Amino acid sequence: MERRRFLKYTSLAATGLVFAACNSGDSGKKSASDSSSPKPGHDFGTLEKTDLTVGIIPVSESAPLVIAKEKGFFERYGINVNLSKQLDWQAVQDGLIAGKLDASQALFGMPMLAKLGAAKADMISLMVLNLNGGGITLSQKAWDGGIRAGIEYLTFPEFADAYRKYIKAFEEKAKLAVDFTVSMNNYNYRYWLAAMGINPNKDVEVIEIPPSQMVHKIKAGFIDGYCVSEPWNQQAIYEKTGFSSYITPTIWKGHPGNILATMEPWVKENPVTARALVAAVLEACQFCDRPENRPEIVQILAQSKYLNTDAKPVGASLDGTYNYGGFDNKNRVKSIPDFYLFNFRDTNYLKQPNNANYPWRSHGVWLLTQMIRWNHLDLQEYPKDADKIIDKTYPLEIYADVAQALKIKLPSDRMKVEPAEVFIDGRKFDPSQPVEYLNSFDIRA
């Protein structure tokens, strides 16, 4: 990875907005059944550090951290958290490595990039915050060019044929945006394009834009499409500046989303605090997946100090009433109750004891194959010590300790096969055969 990828947006990184979420207003009120102070959580021991700065990005995946603050889950575990709203993912990475952030909402691929990329920093994932959650928005230009939402086509190959012809007819390469090099949105986007026979390294220009700026860029005609987390796909539909073509759960059902990340030295210095932090966020994840709580979560997230947008686009993905939009006033609202999974809902791809927060080693294997596939690391082949790297970057110990304390069952194996039916191209992923899987792709860097 070139050094410029790590220095991009450095001037923005220093301007992260730090605030303490207030307990005033409806979003911070406790129910009548609550006592004046929250009941204490599991006691992991004496906290080494009680005042923490935790980073968030204005996307819906921040919900567990926001809810942990607003609903008192951090307080239950004796932690006082200031949430630091970062402008983009580069700021998150820089803040963690520099020690300005104790922990942060982060991208699934960020610890791997920090460790194996130019930074050579020991960033680790403490837990997964969510599964699914992204979408692909296209411009009105694409609509005028005859492209429609994927749900309008009988099959994916039918859509692929139309979109491939549309893209390859550009005199200059279409500009498509992602939120960061190693985001799951980027890898899902590339997977989707390549499955249609479109080489994201040759046939289009993929650029990085902070999530909250995506809508403005597509409205200005600067980009022809983007893949990002919510609410920024639904926001484009709400403002009538774009329409949704595909959602990432149709590219890979149950793909990992964001994570809670920190630095390995921080955990060594604060092992008890790390466990208390994970426990608080894990309980918040459970809260976020109860359908009766979603309306309140929407109102909290929409506030200016968090997502700073209207509640309607926030709610569309969280309450399962996803709108694919369009420019013909046709109703394309579909029920997608598993668009965001923060902990557990029974689906055909998520069964107990699996849950959204479990750190699968196999997900790390998949990530590493795609980082090599698209030349995002200085690696020409899959490393022989990959399992050791993944276990160090996505460790199980802390999560397992917390899960045991909260009486959450764990899978018996950290590796799981992703069946062909969960991927849009019908390609099975067997994590025990990463080299064969990597070599099965015709389109790669």
TrEMBL record:
Single GO BP term: monoatomic ion transport
Signal peptide location: 1-20
Principal localisation: membrane
TM segment ranges: none
Cross-referenced Pfam families: NMT1_2 (PF13379)
Stretches of the chain forming a coiled coil according to its record: none
InterPro entries the record matches: NrtA/CpmA_ABC-bd_dom (IPR044527)
Location within or outside the cell: Cell inner membrane
This protein's UniProt keywords: Cell inner membrane, Cell membrane, Ion transport, Membrane, Signal, Transport
Name of the protein this chain belongs to: ABC transporter substrate-binding protein
GO cellular component: plasma membrane
Region (Disordered): 25-46
PANTHER family linked to this entry: ALIPHATIC SULFONATES-BINDING PROTEIN-RELATED, BLL4572 PROTEIN
